[in-house]
Specification:
eight-stranded mixed barrel, 35% helix, 11 helices, 17% strand, two-stranded antiparallel ribbon, 10 strands, 2 domains, globular, alpha/beta, single chain, TIM Barrel
Length: 335
């Protein structure tokens, strides 16, 4: 019995599917196939692939996973993960590989966190795969720590997936918002679309929409399941500690336009001459094309500003203001 058969028995490998959602239409764009293993000691997928890489059965394992994947997602675009070692061994260029029997688009994911030891060989294999029409390249986990932007440009991916660490708590982190927005802009300039992975809260969802991401994936939208699950788009959004229902009209559906549901705030936009908002304060998230609505100003800061403004007023204005106040007080007493 060979090493592969000893490591993984019949029926111990299975696949679950997680939807990747179009953030414009709020509908499923594709599914990602995620491997699960019931073999003792290999319940963790990274541990399984590490053993396969060390013992030399990574190509056979990958092919088995693709066979199971294609059987369970007929008619649906699918993302499937491939280790760079499989490219070096040219498993995917074999004409009988399962991905070429699928009846829809196949997106081959190459993790960005694993550096290519033989980039030229992998690049050649990827070009050959991409030339077959319905197979597209995806760079996975961008931002996980091995970024080489020139390499990403050379590979010419159709889609780039942002690592979930870039998405975690993005709504509260201005630096992350700016970084993700810049990455999305760079990818669009290179002709690639962007998937934001690991979305777990409504705030993270609307933050990545505001940053321009095209697709989203995460437990908030749908959890992985053996049968392709439905998309669970959140109907409500948290704003300033409150939950506000999103009006249907606030969600635009124009082709090529990605916009977040419009947020309704009770605070009016300050008139000219009103106290400035802090430069570090995060703006609201209005629909695209509308001016951002500033957040409420803390009472302490507003009081301090008023005192400063009063000191800078001409003396005549201060006297007039004081006289008006005295008149109002006297009138009130008479009444």
């Amino acid at each position: 019995m060979d090493v592969f058969s000893l490591a993984v028995g019949p029926g111990e490998i299975r696949v679950v599917y997680q939807p990747i959602v179009d953030l414009r239409t709020q509908k499923m764009f594709a599914v990602e196939a995620l491997v699960r293993c019931q073999a003792k000691g290999f319940e963790s997928p990274p541990r399984l692939f590490e053993d396969a890489l060390q013992k030399g059965y990574i190509g056979r394992l990958g092919r088995l996973i693709r066979e199971i994947t294609i059987q369970g997602c007929a008619g649906v675009p699918v993302f499937t993960n491939v280790h760079p070692q499989e490219l070096m061994q040219r498993w995917l260029v074999r004409p009988d590989d399962p991905i070429y029997s699928h009846d829809n688009d196949v997106f081959v994911e190459i993790t960005e966190s694993v550096p290519f030891s033989h980039f030229d060989i992998c690049h050649s294999t990827l070009r050959e795969i991409q030339s077959r029409g319905s197979v597209h390249l995806v760079i996975d986990d961008l931002g996980a720590g091995f970024s080489n932007l020139q390499r990403i440009v050379d590979l010419n991916p159709a889609i780039v997936k942002l690592d979930m660490q870039l998405i975690r708590d993005i709504a509260e982190n201005r630096r992350k918002q700016l970084l993700v927005r810049s990455i999305v802009s760079m990818c669009v300039d290179q002709g690639a679309r962007v998937v934001a992975e690991g979305i777990e809260t409504p705030d993270e969802l609307y933050a990545v929409i505001d940053a321009g991401a095209h697709y989203g994936q995460g437990y908030l939208l749908a959890k992985p399941a053996p049968q392709i699950p439905a998309v669970n788009w959140p109907a409500q959004r948290a704003v300033s500690g409150k939950i506000e229902q999103q009006p249907a009209a606030a969600r635009t559906t124009q082709p090529g336009v990605i916009s977040a549901p419009q947020v309704t705030r009770s605070m009016p936009v300050p008139a000219p001459g009103a106290p400035p908002t802090s430069a570090s304060a995060l703006p609201g998230t209005p629909a695209r094309g509308q001016a951002p609505v500033p957040p409420p100003i803390p009472k302490a800061a507003l009081k301090k500003w008023r005192k400063g403004a009063a000191k800078n007023q001409p003396s005549a204005i201060r006297r007039t203001a004081g006289q008006s106040s005295d008149v109002r007080t006297t009138s009130a007493r008479r009444a």
